[in-house]
Amino acid sequence: MLQQIYGTDDVTPYWIADMDFPIASPITNVMQQLVNRELYSYEFDSQTVFEAISTWNKERHNLDLKPEHFVQVPGVLSAIAMLIRDFTHEGDGILIQTPVYHQFRRLIESAGRQVINNPLKIEGDQYVIDFEDYEEQLKSGNIAMILLCNPHNPVGRVWTKSELQKLVSIAKKYNTTIISDEVHGDIIFDGARFTSIASLDYNNSLTIIGSPAKNFGLNSISNGYIYSDNQMLREKIRATSSSMSLDHANAVTMYATIAAYQHGQEWFDGFLNYTQTTRNWIVDFMAKQLPQVKTFSPQGTNQIWFDFSGLGLKPKQLKALLTLEAKIALTPGTWFGEEDENFYRMNFASPLEKVQASLQLLKSKVG
Predict the structure, then answer these.
(1) Of the candidates 235, 263, 291, which is a domain's last residue?
(2) Residues 81 and 58 occupy one common structural domain
(3) What is the CATH number of the domain that holds 325?
(4) Alpha-carbon distance values, 317 to 1, 216, 311, 324, 343 (Å)
(5) Which of 15, 71, 140, 155 has a 20 to 30 A CA-CA distance from 320?
(6) What digits encode the pLDDT tens for the residues 122-162?
(7) 238-266 tens-digit pLDDT
């Protein structure tokens, strides 16, 4: 894939939002116990899974979630795909706030719906929601759903409570469903505070919350968990999931999820502290050593967003600098709907020494 995307595999990859660390030992231990028992039976202890997620969110975010209000689905992307099909019709418009996780567009278009962009604005050193455009889009009557990303991937914003309240109040005005992707909701750095849509008492909303993928490095074995206090919405997605026999987990996923949320807090706190240190180093290094590159310091997520336009390079020259000379594989901003080819995203959930070596090599090539 590196050869296909970057034209070389002689690069250090920072392009996928996976962590580059061994997972927490409580998860490894419980999976090893599962292997040692030599039995993989039909089993899904949904009550324990949902209680573990609820307890975790109460302790970390003071968020009160009712375990019985969760619906389990195979994964985050399948959750979004099901919600799009259940709560919109072919041809409907679904609003996204670009630049945003590129799979949103694919899921919308593959379902025969229209992507409606509400581009974020840059104010100073961070991105903000363009509420004037947002309301104009909803006022048009063409928007059936808002697909929100909080914390926002790739720009790293953690939307404030007041921003989310404004977003919800406008959605209420036009009776528009909000789907909030909150899978990065625990990766929050000092100075920011996470607010879930589930805490804002909007009856026409569903939240994708509780996937251990990003927190614990379980990307390929994690489920997705949809939450809503609206019984009608919840029962509809539960019926869809059940009708396709997607409402059950496998033993590995179940035990890993329970172990993560019940016993992974110490490990996760260490991971969060480590990646915050890495973020701080990147921001400081870029400001002092590569000030031509605009760096958007993330409030959350392990993704950092760069604008390389200050280097004055053409797109092909910039790609060659990054991949062939500095030997780093970043994610092109165009994947996220950013029209300017000078923007790239970097996943920094990697050993600090590796990140330092990569950016120091980049500095040496820029001169």
Answers:
(1) 263
(2) yes
(3) 3.90.1150.10
(4) 21, 37, 10, 10, 13
(5) 155
(6) 999 999 999 999 999 999 989 999 999 999 999 999 999 99
(7) 999 999 888 887 899 999 999 999 999 99
CA 245 – CA 73 distance, rounded (Å): 10
| Dihedral in degrees, nearest 10, Cα atoms 32, 37, 41, 47 | -60
Name the 3-class secondary structure at 363: helix
157 and 140 in a common domain: yes
Question: What is the chain's length?
Answer: 367
CATH number of residue 147's parent domain = 3.40.640.10
> Which DSSP string corresponds to 195-236?
--GGGTT-TTEEEE----HHHHT-TTT--EEEE-S-HHHHHH
Nearest residue to 316 (alpha-carbon basis) of 3, 99, 7, 15: 7
Domain, as residue range, for 115 = 25-263
Task: Please tell me the pTM assigned to this model.
Answer: 0.95
